[in-house]
């Protein structure tokens, strides 16, 4: 355990003791995330804080730590398991290292045509089944929050699969995403979100993928000349909480927090599309990144190159999970 983990765990333990010692002390929820405040996830986390604090009449205090301030990718899962933070909202692409690889089904290219198809899956047996798998890891899944559909970026025009050949592309820690980049002939590089801007700036990587809201708020337009509107995959989040902490809450508080989470989820999913549309427009206005709209022919070449990733990852995401998601979305491999 490194020093930061030890210190955070100690602080949480002291807070827990003092909160039982004095009825006046609020229950503190540290909610850590890696994106900017001005994003669908950043705004929804702040909205959850507002609702939780108001509705619990101050018995709960939610401390939101955005922008990898407290923990970054590669640290935050361990931090929530140890109780150094209570709540996180990692992207669905980041659960493989925790040992729940089935979450990577959401990373499969072109699986979802729109948010409605996605919601059928998260609100159905697959969504519930994935949360069930988290329990043995000491984690409770509370909600799925949308971000949006990903675009690709690089410093050269990327319209056809051949344009990606040899490019070093930053990805999240998902094997499915690694296979996606390999299918395009590029070289995937797993990297924490907090390091992407600098890696693009210094040429450690050549390009990346993310929804426009993350692209714009990380100022990637300063270091990427082209953005292709590929919409080749979905990016969203699971809001998770330390199980011991959650189960140990007074029942009335837990009910209040469940209500606040339900409303924050609606808020997150209601704003996601517009946040991404606005971010894309903001990128366009900077004039720094050229936005490439793909022709029908280019789109279909990209799709043809990328759908092979489904079959390659059938055993990774689970044959049954995959079949269930195909049934909900109508995707034909
Ligand atoms: C990433 O590229 O790491 C993003 O998914 C970060 C996030 O949480 O949206």
Structural overview:
The mean pLDDT is 95. This protein has a single domain, classed as D-Maltodextrin-Binding Protein, domain 2 (3-Layer(aba) Sandwich), CATH 3.40.190. It contains 14 helices and eleven strands. The longest helix has 36 residues, at 251-286. The termini are far apart. The chain is globular and about 60 Å long. Helix 2 runs antiparallel to helix 10 and helix 4 crosses helix 14 (319-329). The strands form two sheets. Strands 7-6-8-5-9-11 form a six-stranded mixed sheet. A five-stranded mixed sheet has the order 2-1-3-10-4, sandwiched between helices. The protein is 46% helix and 17% strand. With 333 residues, the protein is of the alpha/beta class. (2S)-2-hydroxybutanedioic acid binds at residues 34-35, 91, 147, 172, 193, 210, 214, 235.
Set out the fold topology:
Elements: H1 3-21, E1 27-32, H2 40-55, E2 60-65, H3 76-82, E3 87-88, H4 115-122, H5 125-134, E4 139-149, E5 151-154, E6 168-171, H6 175-183, E7 187-190, H7 196-202, E8 207-210, H8 212-217, E9 226-228, E10 234-242, H9 243-247, H10 251-286, E11 290-292, H11 296-306, H12 308-312, H13 314-317, H14 319-329
Helix pairs in contact: 2-10, 4-14
The chain binds (2S)-2-hydroxybutanedioic acid.
(2S)-2-hydroxybutanedioic acid binds near residues 91, 147, 193, 210 and 214.
